[in-house]
Amino acid sequence: MGTPRFDPTHSLEFNLDRGSVKLSGSLERVLLPADALAALLRGADAETRRDFARRLGTEAGRRVAERLDAGASSEAVVEHLGGEVALMGLGALGVERWGRALVVTVTGSPLRAEGDELLAGLVEGALQRAFGRHTAVVALGRDDTLVRLLVVSSNAAELVRAWLAEGTSFGDVLARLNGSAPS
Amino acid sequence: MNQERIQKLEALLDRIRRNRSARPSRSATTAEPIALEALPATAAAQAAAPPPAPAAAKPATPAAPPVTFATTPPAHVDAVRASATPPGPPVAPPPVATPSWRPEPGSAVQARPTTVPPMELSEDDLIDVTTLPPGPEPDDAEAEPVLAVSAEEEEEQPPASSRRSRGPATLDEVMANASSADSEREIPVKTPPPESGPQEALPATGLEAPRLPDIENLEADLSGPPSMGPTAEQLGETIELEAPRGPELEIDITVSESDADVPAPAEELEVTLPRASLQSGLYDVSIAAPPSIDVPAPEVHVAVTVPAVASSPESPERVARPALGATDVAEVRFGTRAAEKSFLELLDSSLGL
Prior knowledge:
The structure holds two protein chains of two kinds.
Chain A: E1 12-15, E2 20-23, E3 28-29, H1 34-43, H2 46-67, H3 74-88, E4 92-98, E5 101-107, H4 116-131, E6 136-142, E7 146-152, H5 154-165, H6 170-180
Antiparallel strand pairs in A: 1-2, 2-3, 4-5, 5-7, 6-7
Chain B: H1 2-22, H2 41-48, H3 65-70, H4 75-84, H5 123-130, H6 144-156, H7 171-184, H8 215-223, H9 232-235, H10 257-261, H11 343-351
Helix pairs in contact in B: 1-6, 4-5, 4-6
């Protein structure tokens, strides 16, 4: 059974008479300016931001789970989950594998560094909803356009955050993480 | 002859002295002294030497007083001084100091006393001499004999050095020289200035004239009989080659008819091209398949020990590398790709860190 391709045709519906926007027949959406959303996120507390991001990811994971099975390849997941993130206008998603560590990359986020926490929560919610795994996503680092999000367990996430707080580069963090883990 | 010269020079010297004594105001302020003392040492020594023997004793020696005087400034120098200096107020010579002129013997020629200020000439004074009008003026009557005598002396006895070229004295001479020079001179070929417009080019003459071909001779050559071969000049020295040595070689040009009748064997790789009417991608089933190519079995090379044979001068011993069969020399190995894992496996692996 082949993996279906992501087809965004007529995914976004604009009803100008009613003044509503719908995404893939889901609930109504609101088109917001990115800087307004970033300002709103700045004013919200951490728990609110986290909950807001996970809700976005849960909805995207649900749509991905409708199309993909448990044995879907990484390319398929990137294609479909990345398609959902792109339809939300939050950037281009990708996946990197550093040894045993899984790293999700997002390029071109309109929220830039202020949206890294939002993206991390989105990936957490999507993976939990699509694959039934409770994960902890930590932002390893970013450059102008790309942010790397490490997908680990909760215990490993605490360790990684501690290394990052010490000023360790993300490469060294990944090297330590792979070296400390039992093979 | 020498006696006459001596007398003339003595008379000249005396007149010079009298002229100088007649103009005392010019001595120190206006005129530069002529450096008689600056004469060459030989001349000064000769002038200061005691008077020689009578002229008849040494008639032909160049060190005689006239010759010594010739090394002093030439006669026209005195003339310059006389003509360039405006005639001052007439000063009567003191009757007591100036004796009346009397021919002196040759032995009386002495060097000028050192108290006489030397005179130095300038270039302008020399130019004035050359431009002097030919006729004397009444005011210069006193200096005229000096000029006449000096000019005559110069003509009779040229100095040791070359004479300075003397330009034409009058405008008529200049015009005459110019006309004579124009008649002898060739018209130089010059590039006309650009603003002069078109101008007829002058025919080149002299060395610049090109060599014109002799048309008559050329026509005569053309009208002559056609050449029957190279001339002797073109051939040069002909060398007769020796006759070939050795047996004669003959080429058999006869063609055997039996070989021509035998058809050429068909090439193994010769195939019949498909018909042009067939569409692209189709093949003609009527064409017979090409014969199968018998691939020879790979030869097995077995190393054989050959006993060494002493090389002789007639047949050298050659050692060649054994032939290798067809083999794949290069081997490309691809890296083993990681086993394809599903995203869920990757996720579980990352969560196991």
